[in-house]
Amino acid sequence: MKFEVHLDSVTGRTRHVVDLEKDGASYKVSLDGQPMDADVILAAPNAVSVLMNGTAFEIHIAPSLDGTYKLQTGPHEFQADVRDPRAWRGGKQGGLEAEGRQQIVAPMPGKVIRLLVNAGDEVEAGQGLVVVEAMKMQNEIRSPKKGRVQRLQAKEGQAVNAGDVLAWVE
Amino acid sequence: MFRKILIANRGEIAVRILRACREMGIPSVCVFSEVDRTALHVRLADEAYLIGPAPSRESYLRIDKLIDVARRSGCDAIHPGYGFLAENPELPRVCTDAGITFIGPPPETMELMGSKTAGKQLARRADVPTVPGTDEAIENAADAQSLARTMGYPVVLKAVAGGGGKGMRVVNEDEAFASAWRDASSEALNAFGDARVFLEKYLDSPRHIEIQIFADSHGRVVSLGERECSVQRRHQKVIEEAPSTVVTPDLRRKMGEAAVRLARAGGYINAGTVEFLVDASLNFYFLEVNTRLQVEHPVTEQVTGLDLVKLQIAIAAGHRLPFAWETITPRGHAMEVRLYAEDPDNNFFPCPGKILARRIATGPGIRLDEGVYRGWVVPIEYDPLLSKLIAWGNSREETIARLRRALDEYTITGIRTNVSLFRRILAEPEFLRGEIHTRWLDELLARPRPPAIPSRPGTEAAAAIAAAYWESIQPGNPSRDGQANVGATSRWKQEGRRSQVDHQP
Questions:
Q1: Which structural domain, as residue segments, surrounds residue B441?
Q2: Hey, is the C-beta of A131 within 8 angstroms of any chain B C-beta?
Q3: Mind telling me how many Å the CA of A151 is from chain B's nearest CA?
Q4: Nearest-neighbour CA in chain A from B414: distance (Å)
Q5: What's the total number of domains in chain A?
Q6: Are B490 and A90 in contact (CB under 8 A)?
Q7: Residues 6+ apart with CB under 8 A from B285
């Protein structure tokens, strides 16, 4: 079975095709058309062990809300977008904002404790918009750009979840 | 000895105290808020009682409820841990009235020494050097600002009731004073229920070095040596070690004597920490007293071989400190890192959520004090401290090597942690040389990131293979089930993902 894997890391984005063919209890693995001497197994919950020509890797995997996977091995991290050509996958969030208009979202669950601007205000890049308190720490959410606060969704005292829209800056 | 001890805390410190009680053969009682029903301290408890909803003001800070649980469960002592009520003199006062022993200093001592301003006045009387500044809370912003101008910037605003960097703001220029005042007061009010702040001169590049003291109720006071906690992010300690690289036996003796003098002057009993700032010429200035067990106490435990929690309990029960401890010296080196559920790549925002998997660090010279486990959902309501990873060895070099090794072993999957911060610090030549001060880490983080650590050949290939394999074993994948009902597949997969990323219980 073939999978198309897009990997994002600090060094950039790469694309690979992985072919996994069941061979008894294990798999025959090929990468980008090259047969690999690789043994792959689920070693523990969310932990995949890969032995490649004897070199050992343990990859820790967690799903993200957007359907991609977060991979971690030692100090290295990857974001993997796996496409299975045979399976239909709908509802994937492409999610790019309209040019210039920035959506300000809560980076973690918490409580809005203070609004620092009003709808319609002109703001500078880096200027605080909203203060969100989580785990006893107050965190200022700043504007990513110079512009105008188009809409202020957040209300003082409101509980927010990670990803909730607080404001739009245009 | 006590019949039964109530542990008035949660998280790793509740687990730490519970373990000490168990080793001493003393039954203990845990308390929990509604969101902590499945917390590790409750799972490990002999007895556990619900004390209210998630907000700490309605649960862990409710003295009446704690006393009620203590009475009903037959406890004759309360250990407050750190944070929450640990430095609130009201708790020991109410305990005394209820005939329960508070494991900590007497309320009068707590008031005298725990308040940053009263502590400073006491230090002056005990001939312990102090940082220039006000001894008392300042009533209004205007007075404070004119004082700051006289003193000269930079100055620091601190909460009178404070600790842990909360309600604290450094002001570098006059223009920033008003907003810093407002932030410090409101944060202080939120964190401690007391908005009062005071003002101090901000020393340039000092080290934070603290002395662990112990005092029994028979008049003996000892110093158990220093801990250096100079690596701080926005005034929050992130790495602590003992001994300090700059403390000579002579300086250790001088600082120890100053701390003991202060403790005697305040009538101190039980465990306490006297914090000092140390300048480049190794002059030390009294900063504050923490009238409780510190988060970083394991560092002292590893270099002295003592169990500070058991010692606290024994002293509260009226036992004496042995003579021999008056000359205790550290052996080897110990270092602690505080692993938090926060994202270093996103301004250290808290990242609560579900711990999907965990691989712990063990082996020679490694200790893990924590209150987490696989499958637990880290709640948003409390401090995001997950684990304290402590390493010790014969030398600082060996200790650092062990800590690095352990950080590679320890993985938490499902939530973000600040582990990459420690990898970076433990690779910094300045840190390795011990050239650190309280602003060192903030300055380091303001510098450009070092180039990514080069990966072993094959890492990316292994990651691609692992990702494909992981996809293939997800419930409903045709390669696993041998069926190609794609509509159902997709819903199964979505449900599988949803249950793994669900952030709320």
A1: 332-450
A2: no
A3: 24
A4: 5
A5: 2
A6: yes
A7: B129, B130, B131, B203, B206, B276, B277, B278, B279
Active site residues of B: 292
Please enumerate in sequence order all residues whose Cβ is within 8 A of that of B183, keeping only pairs 6 or more positions apart, or say none.
Answer: A138, B169
Same domain, B341 and B474: no
pLDDT digits (tens, 9 = 90+) for B97-150: 999 999 999 999 999 998 878 888 999 999 999 988 887 889 889 999 999 998
User: Do residues B267 and B278 make contact, with C-beta atoms less than 8 angstroms apart?
Assistant: no
- The reply to whether B460 falls in a domain is no
Left, alpha or beta for B25 (phi > 0: left; psi -120 to 50: alpha)?
A: left
- For the question of an ipTM over 0.90, the answer is no
- Estimate the crossing angle of helix B297-304 against helix B308-316, to 10 degrees: 100
Q: Tell me which chain B residue has its CA closest to the CA of residue A81.
A: B467
B467 contacts A80? CB cut-off 8 A? yes
Cα A160 to Cα A108: distance, rounded to the nearest angstrom = 8
Both structure tokens of B322: 């042995």
Contacts of B471 in chain A (CB under 8 A): 3, 69, 82, 84
B323 shares its domain with B356: no
Q: What is the 3-state secondary structure (H, E, C) of B142-190?
A: HHHHHHHHHHCCCEEEEECCCECCECCEEECCHHHHHHHHHHHHHHHHH
B233 vs B16, B143, B425, B498, CA distance in Å?
A: 25, 29, 12, 34
pLDDT in tens, B279-308: 988 999 999 999 999 999 999 999 999 999
A111 and A74 both lie in a single domain = no
Structure pTM?
0.80
